[in-house]
Amino acid sequence: MTRMTFAEATRRALAEEMRRDPLVWALGEDLVQGGIFGQYKGLAEEFGPERIVSTPISESTIMGAGLGAALCGTRPVIEMRIADFTLCAMDELVSQIAKVRYMFGGQGRAALVVRMPQGMWRNSAAQHSQCLEAWLTHIPGLVVAAPGTPADAAGLLKAAIRSDDPVVLMEPKNLWTAEGEVPEEVAPIPFGVARRAAEGDAVTVVTWSAMVPVVEQGARESGIGCDVFDLRSLWPWDEAAVLASVRRTGRLLVVHEAVTVSGFGAEVVARVLEAVGPSGLRAAERLGAPRAPVPFSPPLEEAIRITPARVAEAIRRIAAT
Amino acid sequence: MSNETARRMAMLRDMARIRAFEREAVAAMRSGEAPGVVHPSIGQEAVAVGVCGNLRRADRITSTHRGHGHAIAKGADARAMMLELHGRAGGSCGGKGGSMHIADFAVGMLGANGVVGAGIPIACGAAQAIRLRKEEAIVACFFGDGAVNRGPFLEGMNWAALYRLPVLFVCEDNGFAAFTRNSAVTAGAGPAARAEACGVPASAVDGEDVLAVDAVAAELVARIRAGQGPQFLHARCYRWEGHTGTDAAAYRPAEEAAAARGRDCIRRLAALLEQAGVAPGEIAVVEAEAAAEMAAHRAAALAAPWPPPEAAFSDVQDTGAPA
Ligand SMILES: Cc1ncc(C[n+]2csc(CCOP(=O)(O)OP(=O)(O)O)c2C)c(N)n1
C-alpha cells in the first residue's frame, strides 16, 4: 500500500492501462498540460500527442468523436473537465453513446469512458458545482460509477477502460487532493459491488463519491452502530448488500451531495421498500441538497453543505424511530 | 482640454479603473479573502473600454468568465462587483454568483458566464427582443478566442446574420484558452473568417490600442444602429496574467508576457495624451484615483456583512420553491 491522492492514483491507473493496451487514449481540454486537476500530469510526455490529445473547447465533438473512435476499435477516455460541461454534450452522451449498441442491433459497441468530475469545490458557484449522477443512472445503456476513495477511483477507472459498455466516471472534485491507501497493484474493481466502510446493526447508511468521508465521520460521531456502504457504482448498484443490511437494521439513510428531489437516493429507498416491504423498513430518510442551485458565497454554500454533524443528526433521528 | 482629449482621458480612467479593480481582485483571490476563482483581464482593458465607450446605457452586453473589464466599462457598480467577488451582502448578485457570474442588469450587463461561448446565443435573443420591443439599442457580445471552437459560435453567427440582428460580436483573442495556446487547437483562417463564412462582416483590430478599438467599434456600432445587421470584431491582445489569479502560466515563455507588458494599452494612451499636452501629473492622478477607489472597495468588501444563510434558498423559483 502507498498513500497517494485521488489525482495520482487515477493518473497511475490510466498510465498502466495505456501501457497495457495501445488502443487506449484520452481526449479533452488541456490534457497535455496535465488536466485541470493534475490527473493527466506527465502522460503526454510518455504517450505522445496522439494518445493524450488536447482538444479545442468543443464538448459535443469531444464526446461524439469519442464515440466514433470507439466504434472503430479504440478505447477512448473522454475527459469532460467537469460534469457541468457534459451538458454541452448531452445529445452525444445520451442519444448517441448510450443508444448505439441497442439501436443498431448490437453491431457495434461504445467501449469508452467518460470522466466528469463533479460536485462542490472551492466556491465554484452554480455552473461549476453540480452533481448530476441521477440524470445518467436514468439512461439505459450507461454504467455509472462514483468513487469515494483514491483506491476505488483507480480500480474503477481500470474497470471502466476494460469495459465494453460505456462507463461514466463521476470523480469527486473536492477530493482530488485527498489521500488514501492504494495497493501497489491496482486491480479493476467490478461494477455493482459496494465497499462496506463500517459495520453495525442499528442503521444502514448508503452513500458515494464526495460524501464518503463525510458519512464515515458522521457515522463515527453519531455514536450509533452504523452499517455504512460506499456504493462506488450507481448503475449497477449493490442492491444485495444493502438489502441484506436493511433486513438486519430495518433502518435506512441515503446521503448524497446531489439535490434530494429525484436524486439517486430516491431509487435506493424505493427499491429497498419494494424488496423488504413496509414492515421491513421502520425508517428511511434521504439526506441531500435542497432543490436550489449551489451558491457562491461561503456562508450560503455552508447553508446547503452536508456536514458530518448533519449526517450524525440524521442517523440519531432514524435510530430513535 | 479639447473634447477629444477629454474623451481620451475618460478612456484612460476606465482602463485604469479596470486594472486597479483586477489587481485588487487577484490579490484578494491569492490571500483567500475572495473565495473561488478570479480570471483577470489585465492587459486586455483596451478592448472592453474601446467597445463599451461606443455603447449607450440602454445597450446590452453579454460577457465571459473574464468579464470584470466588460462590466466596469459598461458602467457597472464597481463597489457592488467587489462585494460580489468577496461573497458579501450588497454584492451585484447578493453573493450568489461570485467573480465568474457578475451581472448588472441596471446598466445592460446581462452577465458574465461560466460556460465558454454561452453568451453568444443569449446575445442573439437579446437582440431579437430589442427588435420586437422597438427599442433603440444594440447588443455587444464578448467572448474569447476559445469560444470559436464551440458549436454555439457557429449557430450564433448564422442566426444573427439570418435575422440581421443588431449585435456586435467581439472576439477577444488573447492567445490562450485556459492552459493551451489557441493556435494549437484552432484550424483555418481564424475567427473573422469563420464569421464571414456565415455572412457576418468582420474587422480586425490591435486590441492593445484603445484608440484603434474605439475607432473601429464606432464604425461597426454605427452600421449596426443603421440597421445593417451584425458585425464582428476580432481584437488581438494578450492575457498578461495566468488563466486564473493563481495560475503561474508556466506553459508559455516569460519573454512573451514581458513583451506584451511592453505594449501596455494604458501606457500607450498615456504617452499620446502627454504628446497632446496633458501633464504627466494629471495622468498620475487618474491612476492614483483609480487605485484608491478600488482599494476602498476592497476594504468595504472585507468590512461588509455576509449574506444571511437563508439567501441560499431565495430566487430559485416562485412555483414550487424550496421549503
Ligand atoms: C463549455 C466550456 N468548456 C470548458 C470550460 C472551461 N474553461 C473556462 S475558461 C476556458 C478557456 C476559455 O478560453 P477563451 O474563450 O479564449 O477565453 P479566455 O480565457 O482566453 O479569456 C475554459 C476551457 C468552460 N468554462 N466552458
TrEMBL record, chain A:
Q: Which SUPFAM superfamilies match?
A: Thiamin diphosphate-binding fold (THDP-binding), TK C-terminal domain-like
For molecular function, the Gene Ontology terms on record are: pyruvate dehydrogenase (acetyl-transferring) activity
Pfam families membership: Transket_pyr, Transketolase_C
Source superkingdom: Bacteria
For this protein, the record's Gene3D superfamilies field holds: 3.40.50.920, 3.40.50.970
Keywords assigned: Oxidoreductase, Pyruvate, Thiamine pyrophosphate
Names of required cofactors? thiamine diphosphate
Coiled-coil spans in chain: none
Query: Which EC class does it fall in?
Result: oxidoreductase
According to the UniProt entry, what is the EC number of this protein? 1.2.4.1
Stretches assigned to the Transketolase-like pyrimidine-binding domain: 4-177
Q: What is this protein called?
A: Pyruvate dehydrogenase E1 component beta subunit
Could you read off the lineage of the organism from its UniProt record? Bacteria, Pseudomonadati, Pseudomonadota, Alphaproteobacteria, Acetobacterales
UniProtKB/TrEMBL annotation, chain B:
Needed cofactors, names only, are: thiamine diphosphate
The UniProt keyword set, sorted, is: Oxidoreductase, Pyruvate, Thiamine pyrophosphate
So what EC number does this one have?
1.2.4.1
- Which Gene Ontology BP terms does the record give? pyruvate decarboxylation to acetyl-CoA
The organism named in the record is Neoroseomonas alkaliterrae
Question: What is the protein name given in its UniProt record?
Answer: Pyruvate dehydrogenase E1 component alpha subunit
Dehydrogenase E1 component domain location: 14-305
Q: Which SUPFAM superfamilies match?
A: Thiamin diphosphate-binding fold (THDP-binding)
The chemistry this enzyme catalyses reads: N(6)-[(R)-lipoyl]-L-lysyl-[protein] + pyruvate + H(+) = N(6)-[(R)-S(8)-acetyldihydrolipoyl]-L-lysyl-[protein] + CO2
Q: Please name one Pfam family that this protein belongs to.
A: E1_dh
Q: Does the keyword Membrane apply?
A: no
Q: Any idea what job this protein has?
A: The pyruvate dehydrogenase complex catalyzes the overall conversion of pyruvate to acetyl-CoA and CO(2). It contains multiple copies of three enzymatic components: pyruvate dehydrogenase (E1), dihydrolipoamide acetyltransferase (E2) and lipoamide dehydrogenase (E3).
The Gene Ontology terms for molecular function here are:
pyruvate dehydrogenase (acetyl-transferring) activity
Give the matching Gene3D superfamilies.
3.40.50.970
Respond yes or no to whether keyword Transcription is given for this record.
no
* Stored PANTHER family: PYRUVATE DEHYDROGENASE E1 COMPONENT SUBUNIT ALPHA (PTHR11516:SF60), PYRUVATE DEHYDROGENASE E1 COMPONENT, ALPHA SUBUNIT BACTERIAL AND ORGANELLAR (PTHR11516)
Q: Which domain of life is it from?
A: Bacteria
